[in-house]
Amino acid sequence: xxxxxxxxxxxxxxxxxxxxxxxxxxxxxxxxxxxxxxxxxxxxxxxxxxxxxxxxxxxxxxxxxxxxxxxxxxxxxxxxxxxxxxxxxxxxxxxxxxxxxxxxxxxxxxxxxxxxxxxxxxxxxxxxxxxxxxxxxxxxxxxxxxxxxxxxxxxxxxxxxxxxxxxxxxxxxxxxxxxxxxxxxx
Length: 186
Ligand SMILES: [Fe+2]
Ligand SMILES: [Fe+2]
Prior knowledge:
The protein is mostly helical.
């Protein structure tokens, strides 16, 4: 059943890639990393893997389907995910928990259970897994100059790191320092 949802998301991503101005590949640039990190965290924290997998796959569905604006993508995404999960007859309690993951993925401070925490922490860890995408964002989306890219990147890293839940921040601390050392030369 999860594979059916994964296929639905892959199809929507393909549609976005072919029809959008930026041709952004949501799967290879973002979702696959969130999915991988969320599963890893669900094992460490003993969270419900089904909920976490579905939450990770669907958390940005409103961005992918271009429904509403970025500001409201968590609430729009919750509605879209509900429709999709109902279409595949997922049990009500699972649907409700997945919706919670989507509604609360914008800040780890909002997480109300372990499954929500896995998804929002994974959403952040995905940035550290895809540093080339951050350079693309610096140079091509934000017009950052080479002189300023370290400062810009440091601010991104720091913000992400501080946004993690307390326990994942602790778990990730040494890796974070290694990444800063390698990427920023610090
Ligand atoms: Fe998001
Ligand atoms: Fe995301």
